[in-house]
Every structure is written in C-alpha cells, then in structure tokens.
Write a structure and sequence with these properties.
Helix content is 62%, strand content 2%. The model is unreliable at 1-30 and 220-225 (pLDDT under 50). It folds into two domains: 42-85; 94-228, Orthogonal Bundle (Tetracycline Repressor, domain 2), CATH 1.10.357. Strand 1 and strand 2 (116-117) form a beta hairpin. It is an all-alpha fold. This is Ubiquinone biosynthesis protein. Keywords: Lipid-binding, Mitochondrion, Transit peptide, Ubiquinone biosynthesis.
C-alpha cells in the first residue's frame, strides 16, 4: 500500500508556527473568559435551528450538503436557506467544533483520584483527549487545506477553554504561552489522529502524552516558545514519517 500523503498546505500551517512568535498569534486570536459579561451566542437563531437539526442527520448522511438541506426542512425553512452558510459543509463542521468545545464543561468529568485531586496538567490532558475523541466523525473534512484557517481560529478558543476548565489562573505572559503551547500540541495530535489506525486511537493517546511530556521536559529549558514549537514540529514530522506519511 502506498504511504499516505499529508497535504503540504495543512502541515505547512503547523510548521509555520515555528517561524512566527506563537504567543503573538494567540494574542490576536484567543478570546478570554469573563466573569462579568455573558458570552455572545456563536450562531444566530436561524443558523442554530438549521445547524442543530442538520447535525442530527450527520450519523446517516455525514457532514454533507444533504444533511444541511434536511436540517433546513426539519427546522421549517426552505432548502434555499442553506445559502445562510457560504462555506457549505464546513459551516456544519464548524458547528460541531464550536458546540463540542462549549460542551466540554458539562460532558467531561475530570476523575478524582481518591482524596488527592488531579492537578491542572492532568486536567488539561483529560480535557484535550476528550475533545480529540469527539472529532472522529469530522477528521477527514477538517484535514482539507481550504478549511484550515477556520479550524485554527476555533483552535485558539479551544485552547483557552481547556485551560480555563482545568483551573488555570495565570494573569501574566504565561497565559498566552500556555494557550499557544496547547494549540500546537492539539493541532499536531489532530494531524496524527487522521493517520492513526490503532484500535480506539490508542496510538493517538500515546502521541498526546508524549507531546505533553516533551513540553514538561523541554519547554522549561528553552529560551523562547518559538524554539519549543520548532522542536515539537521536527519531532512530529519524524513520528508521522515513521507512519508512512510523506512530508
């Protein structure tokens, strides 16, 4: 069997992080949680009605225009209402990304090891793995190069959500570096997951654990976040090549 080929555009997005201050990128894209103001709803009433109905058809029809049309009908709209979604199928994918992120706080129960509660790092690992597993139905479409920018935008929000739910209380520059680091780890693991054929994605879970361990062991000894990202990028390339991905 010929080795799988990963899109240069997709992986180039990941590798580009090593050539740009990632914390600066995170400053531009990351939202933050406010205890004083309610979060603006991510979708309008009509969009939410159609997309939620369409999402119910994904198990039978996948992330397709057919699901969108059926969702519009179920919500009481004409088929032409799908024009509300200029990105077509990816708007349904984006609905999946956003709703799964927002559902983390209710759907993921962080285990308590007896009297000793898990630390922030362990909670980050649990939340990240749960979010990755929820992406399984959308992996093939999300890997397409034309959808990468929107996925990255949601990625920044996801990294913030995970650190927030894990109990991170940083108020200094580490607020940015933690989220940028997790964004890099998450995106690398997601790329790995698209090539993983192991039962229940056990190799993806190990890959995530290794990247988190790399951050703990190596991150503190490097002078800049960009150096760590570059290290992680090269490490990820080598691992993916070992699985037959031509990069």
């Amino acid at each position: 069997m010929a080795p799988a080929r990963l899109s240069n555009s997709l992986f180039g997005t990941f590798r580009a992080a090593s050539h740009r201050p990632l914390a600066a990128v995170c400053r531009q894209r990351c939202s933050y949680h406010s205890y004083d103001y309610a979060e603006v709803p991510p979708f309008s009433k009509a969009e939410s009605a159609i997309l939620s109905s369409a999402y119910a058809h994904v198990p039978g029809y996948g992330f397709t225009i057919d699901s969108l049309k059926l969702g519009a009908r179920d919500a009481g709209y004409l088929d032409v209402s799908t024009n509300l979604f200029p990105r077509g199928v990816f708007d349904l994918i984006n609905y999946h990304l956003v709703t799964q992120r927002l559902a983390l706080k209710d759907n993921v129960q962080v285990p308590d090891n007896g009297e000793k509660k898990l630390g922030v790092g362990s909670k980050v690992r649990t939340l990240t793995l749960a979010r990755l597993r929820a992406n399984e139905p959308a992996l093939a479409i999300m890997a397409q190069p034309s959808y990468v920018p929107a996925s990255i935008s949601e990625l920044a929000k996801l990294a913030d959500e995970i650190w927030f739910l894990a109990g991170d209380q940083s108020v200094d520059s580490s607020w940015y570096t933690k989220r940028a680091s997790l964004s890099t780890i998450y995106s690398a693991t997601e790329v790995y997951m698209t090539q993983d054929k192991s039962p229940n994605f056990t190799e993806t879970e190990q890959f995530l654990d290794n990247r988190l361990a790399d951050l703990m062991k190596v991150g503190g000894f490097m002078g800049a976040l960009g150096e760590w990202v570059n290290y992680t990028g090269h490490s990820t390339v080598n691992v993916l090549r070992s699985k037959g991905v031509r990069i």
